[in-house]
Design the sequence.
């Protein structure tokens, strides 16, 4: 019952406030680093390519932008196949 | 009357985006501080698009402007316009017919240095944009107030400005959210104060609700703080109090807590509880 009520009263996923927050999160991250979403995608592909030249990549490589306060960092996680 | 603070505060009010309420904030917060007995001077650096004189209702008393001071056509004292309602409030007008490029950051600093001797608070009304006018406005300040509206484009510009202020070594940057409509936040149709502070990561100085009486006051050329009943008047007064060093709680404008909502909800169903 409590959970149900909380859901009813909290920020719904379809609200325009929720949308605004999601859009701002993306836009501000790119603005602060001065790169577009396209550049981020290219960078991701290039990083994986460079690693693949020297190692066998296993599984799904991940390159993500993470933010903490006003600072951002690239979080790169590329699993490499052992012998 | 003499100044009270040993160290003058030079505060630039800026936003990036135009029309979010910089001039309204400067006019009202400065009047409120002057009413509290601080010596306050407001400097209009929106050269070419000045508006502060109109908001304060001082447009007919302007004789000289800041460019004339800088070019030596008059003294600083001659250019300062006094406000009859608030004896502690003076205004240094912007030039209407000149460009923002006609003055330099060093010249603004020089004028501020002279003003520091007589005033507790020096407010600088910054033009929109990030060009020369912005650089002039931030040069002399030791504190920045960033104004935003709860709206995506205004927040984006505020973020850009905060980044530029940080690059310019500002370590005292505070946020004022203007034109908040609590009922829209409730309905999930407006960014909340919490959202804005989370995105911009700076301290909150004030929250000013959307208030029709702002427009009425502007029509009359009277600061809204003279209208005690207006919600915006309380908000601007609170900002002035916080700037003077007092702690003032933020009234809970928007979202009531889930707990409060539950109470209201159950009261509707069990009125005898
Ligand atoms: N809290 C408010 N409620 C209603 N109208 C407001 C409020 N704050 C500002 N305004 C209106 O918004 C307009 C722009 O304000 P202004 O202070 O001139 O912005 P800026 O100096 O940032 O360009 C003005 O017409 C003003 O009356
Ligand atoms: Mg203005």
Sequence:
């Amino acid at each position: 019952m409590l959970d149900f009520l909380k859901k009813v009263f909290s920020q719904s996923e379809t609200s325009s406030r929720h949308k605004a927050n999601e859009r701002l999160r993306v836009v501000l991250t790119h603005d602060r680093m001065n790169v577009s979403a396209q550049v981020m995608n290219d960078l991701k592909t290039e990083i994986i390519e460079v690693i693949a030249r020297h190692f066998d990549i296993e599984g799904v490589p991940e390159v993500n932008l993470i933010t903490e306060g006003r600072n951002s960092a690239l979080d790169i996680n590329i699993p490499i196949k052992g012998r | 009357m003499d100044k009270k603070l040993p160290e003058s505060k030079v505060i630039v009010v800026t936003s990036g985006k135009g029309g979010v309420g910089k001039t309204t904030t400067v006019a009202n917060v400065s009047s409120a501080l002057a009413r509290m007995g601080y010596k306050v001077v407001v400097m209009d650096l929106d050269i070419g698009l000045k508006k502060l004189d109109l908001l304060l209702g001082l447009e007919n008393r302007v004789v000289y402007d800041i460019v004339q001071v800088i070019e030596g056509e008059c003294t600083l004292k001659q250019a300062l316009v006094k406000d009859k309602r608030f004896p502690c409030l003076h205004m240094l007008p912007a030039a209407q017919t000149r460009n923002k490029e006609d003055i330099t950051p060093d010249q603004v600093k020089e004028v501020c240095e002279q003003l520091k001797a007589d005033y507790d608070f020096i407010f600088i009304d910054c033009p929109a944009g990030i060009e020369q006018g912005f650089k002039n406005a931030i040069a002399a300040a030791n504190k920045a107030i960033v104004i935003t509206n709860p709206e995506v484009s205004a927040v984006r510009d505020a973020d850009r400005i905060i980044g530029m202020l940080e690059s310019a070594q500002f370590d005292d940057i505070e946020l004022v959210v203007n034109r908040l409509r609590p009922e829209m936040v409730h309905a999930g149709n407006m960014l909340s104060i919490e959202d804005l502070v989370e995105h911009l990561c700076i301290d909150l100085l004030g929250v000013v609700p959307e208030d029709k009486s702002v427009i009425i006051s502007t029509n009359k050329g009277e600061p809204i703080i003279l209208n005690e009943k207006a919600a915006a008047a309380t908000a601007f007064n609170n900002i002035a109090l916080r700037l003077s060093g007092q702690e003032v709680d933020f009234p809970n404008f928007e979202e009531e807590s889930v707990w409060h909502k539950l109470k209201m909800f159950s009261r509707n169903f069990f009125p005898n509880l």
